[in-house]
Amino acid sequence: MTDVFGDLVGQDEAVAMLRRAAASAAAQLRAPVTAGGHDDLDALAEEYDGDPGPAPADPGAGMTHAWIFTGPPGSGRSVAARAFAAALECVHGTGCGSCPGCHTTLTGTHADVRLVVPEGLSIGVNEMRALVLRAASAPSGGRWQIVIIEDADRLTEAAGNALLKAIEEPPPRTVFLLCAPSTHPDDISVTIRSRCRVVPLRQPPPAAVAEVLVRRDGIAPDVAEWAAAAAQGHVGRARRLARDPEARQRRDAVLAVPRRLTGVGAAFDAASALIEAAEAEAAASVVEIDEAERTALQTALGAGGTGRGAAGAMRGAAGQLKDLEKRQKSRATRAQRDALDRALVDLAGFYRDAIVMALRAPVAPVHTDTASLASAGAQKWDAEGSLRRLEAVLECRAAIEANVKPRIAVEAMMLALWRG
Ligand SMILES: [Zn+2]
């Protein structure tokens, strides 16, 4: 039986840091309230304020009110935040993994743990204000009131400001756990970052990912090894590739792109195919929840009505339906971008393999099943040509991130890949 940190693959340093903090937090709860009712946690939090460099004498021993989990997608930012939340709510204060505190936190039913998963492209100010307000209440379980914000880099500026106020003057038993790709000012405002302790996660090595797929998911070792390499350190993606035939087919189609680029027309066709595949994948991922939400709202509103106030109720209902449609559209856009980005990461892996082979570097390929194609590409394009193509893929990702219309960015990339 592993504890709550068992799911964190290849993150020994971060886990050690979180274990120390959880132990310190548990000691805090056991300690008598100090004179004047002042919380020791405030002193500890102040100790870390404005200290972005290496921590002083006793790094990571303390507990504080606000944390940022950073790392590349799939490194386990939200897994780490949830595990830490469980350790804080654990009745033994360790994150044993089996007590009610651990269990309800990990299954998302703990009354004092709130998880914000932005569905659209950003987290709005109203959502954040409501959250901050609820987070200020005393924890019902007597331990900690915890707010986990996934993709904190998608906070709007106003939402960030609402959050900052709460982090600057945190209620004594409230803990904020933010997840973001990095602490770069593009991802997290400098002022929020300065109030938080950072837990850096690294891209787990393929061997560690494969090991957890075999041990926990019962996946055959050869499949696990292939999937872990192909997923480039993204644990969830590796698991999907190992288990889901449709995910494998989509990946195969993406990796077929380089050999299909035989002319301008083929480049535009490949761009259309990539965009449409991302749209189809995204649509499939949201169709069930969209339908369930619409049905639930229609049931809640009742079907029609003729009594007094019915006309006003109808107007209100129309507004709520419109709001729902807006939210669903935003979520669909996000799902499309995510699907397209996964495809671009796969494609980047292919050209990276070509570079490695052109340079005869003693490094394992990302995509073992297309290694011979990458090798042929390496001979044809040489290292420089392969690098230019890799850069075209990375530029496409950056352009979409900067809100260039995906079709425009992908068409430009396909043309660049064809021309070299
Ligand atoms: Zn526990």
From TrEMBL:
<dbReference type="InterPro" id="IPR004622">
    <property type="entry name" value="DNA_pol_HolB"/>
</dbReference>
<feature type="region of interest" description="Disordered">
    <location>
        <begin position="43"/>
        <end position="68"/>
    </location>
</feature>
<dbReference type="InterPro" id="IPR003593">
    <property type="entry name" value="AAA+_ATPase"/>
</dbReference>
<protein>
    <submittedName>
        <fullName>DNA polymerase III subunit delta</fullName>
        <ecNumber>2.7.7.7</ecNumber>
    </submittedName>
</protein>
<feature type="domain" description="AAA+ ATPase">
    <location>
        <begin position="63"/>
        <end position="204"/>
    </location>
</feature>
<dbReference type="Pfam" id="PF13177">
    <property type="entry name" value="DNA_pol3_delta2"/>
</dbReference>
<dbReference type="InterPro" id="IPR027417">
    <property type="entry name" value="P-loop_NTPase"/>
</dbReference>
<dbReference type="InterPro" id="IPR050238">
    <property type="entry name" value="DNA_Rep/Repair_Clamp_Loader"/>
</dbReference>
<dbReference type="GO" id="GO:0003887">
    <property type="term" value="F:DNA-directed DNA polymerase activity"/>
</dbReference>
<keyword id="KW-0548">Nucleotidyltransferase</keyword>
<dbReference type="GO" id="GO:0006261">
    <property type="term" value="P:DNA-templated DNA replication"/>
</dbReference>
<dbReference type="GO" id="GO:0008408">
    <property type="term" value="F:3'-5' exonuclease activity"/>
</dbReference>
<keyword id="KW-0808">Transferase</keyword>
